[in-house]
Specification:
Elements (H helix, E strand, L loop, with lengths): L7 E5 L4 H12 L3 E6 L18 E5 L8 H4 L7 E4 L6 H6 L1 H22 L2 E7 L26 H19 L4 E7 L2 E2 L10 H11 L3 E4 L5 E3 L1 E2 H13 L7 E4 L4 E3 H12 L5 E4 L14 H7 L7 H18 L9 H7 L3
Parallel strand pairs: 1-2, 1-4, 2-3, 4-5, 5-6, 6-11, 7-10, 8-13
Antiparallel strand pairs: 9-12
Helix pairs in contact: 1-7, 4-5, 6-8, 6-10, 8-10
The chain binds uridine-5'-diphosphate.
Length: 343
């Protein structure tokens, strides 16, 4: 609640995996929510349960274009703007790299301008990808990263780095009150089966009895955060009232190899899928783990969901999806999507 009244919140990317969970959390606190989504990787079905919710609205629009008239109205009342809009899995963001870059740069600029005009507070969903293939481990917010500026991941990594730059500049010049989260690998219900990331791929492959695709030798590491923990971190960061804290890592510091993840999912699903090796994608980071000291100290935030509990819930969700939809999408591997063109 703000000034005794319910908040008005804009969630760009509101139909996506993270965005739809954020919309749910905000609505459950009494907020009015407008989701904006171009439905490129976001899906209406993530928001179907909100169709009759009077405090919720979805606008089908792309933030790289001039924002819809309704969002430019002088009467628009917005207290918070969350920018979660961007394809975020490597096969999806690489399928149309130009659009990915423009979403982070032009889209973020459009939303920052809206933030300035409305006096709202702005939240940028940045990413651990801004650290590239990190030479500092675990990654602290003070690390500048090791990013290939011209490789296939650059459209996302450099786009998000530029989005951070813009956001910092609006803050520095007093044009907007901003918060920046650097999100590490996150998983949970409402991921797309064809998202292409390792958690959804391995679970969907295991459930379908398809080959489990491990890129490289599977010794690369990631640290996986369950979605509800992450959304709690978003809201704590947005609500933080101290001086601008800079960017804040949000992720679960429990690190494991991709091979270990696959073994756990195979054991939990009882699947007899074979594990097959595929080439390691170009510039694939060798290891990743957040240092979350800043989030702990400033926000009192700590991810609480153990990996096995989160995987269990995610496996159950994908299982239900498969049971309810005989034409359910399959896992998506990098080579498939790149040969197929934009999604
Ligand atoms: N990966 C894999 N098999 C897959 C999909 C991904 O082995 O089917 C690997 C990928 O090469 C990377 C790790 O899993 O090393 C995490 O990849 P993901 O796309 O989930 O996230 P990101 O690379 O953005 O951390």
């Amino acid at each position: 609640m703000k000034n005794g009244k319910s908040k008005h919140v804009l969630v760009a990317g509101g139909a996506g995996f993270l965005g739809s969970h954020l919309c749910d959390a905000l609505l459950s606190e009494g907020a009015h929510v407008i989701a904006v989504d171009n439905l490129l990787t976001g899906r209406r079905q993530n928001l179907r349960h909100l169709e009759r919710e009077p405090r919720f609205d979805l606008i089908d629009a792309d933030i790289i274009k001039p924002l819809p008239a309704r969002l430019r109205s002088k009467r628009l009342k917005i207290d918070e703007v969350y920018n979660l809009a961007c394809a975020a899995s490597p096969p999806h963001y690489q399928a149309d790299p130009e659009h990915t870059m423009l979403t982070s740069v032009v889209g973020t600029h459009n939303l920052l301008t809206l933030t300035e005009a409305t006096g709202a507070r702005f939240f940028l969903a940045s990413t651990s990808e801004i650290y590239g293939d990190p030479e500092v481990h675990p990654q602290t917010e003070s690390y500048w990263g090791n990013v290939n500026p011209t490789g296939p991941r650059a459209c996302y990594d450099e786009g998000k780095r530029a989005a951070e730059t813009l956001t910092f500049d609006f803050e520095r010049s007093g044009r907007a009150d901003v918060r920046i989260a650097r999100i590490f690998n996150t998983y949970g219900p409402r991921m797309r089966a064809d998202d292409g990331r390792v958690v959804s791929n391995v679970i969907c492959q295991a459930l379908a009895g398809d080959d489990i695709t491990i890129y490289g030798d599977g010794s690369q590491t990631r640290s996986f955060c369950y979605v509800s923990d992450l959304i709690d971190g978003f809201q704590r960061l947005m609500a933080y009232e101290g001086p601008f804290p800079g960017a804040v890592n949000l992720g679960n510091p429990v690190e494991l190899t991709v091979g270990d993840l696959a073994s756990r999912v195979l054991a939990m699903t009882g699947s007899s899928s074979r594990v097959v090796r595929r080439p390691l994608p170009v510039d694939d980071p060798r290891r990743r783990r957040p240092d979350i000291t800043r989030a702990k100290q400033l926000l009192g935030w700590n991810p609480r969901t153990p990996l096995d509990a989160g995987l269990k819930a995610t496996i159950a969700w994908f299982s239900d999806e498969r049971a309810n939809d005989t034409k359910a999408a399959r896992a998506l591997t990098l080579e498939n999507v790149l040969s197929a063109g934009p999604v």
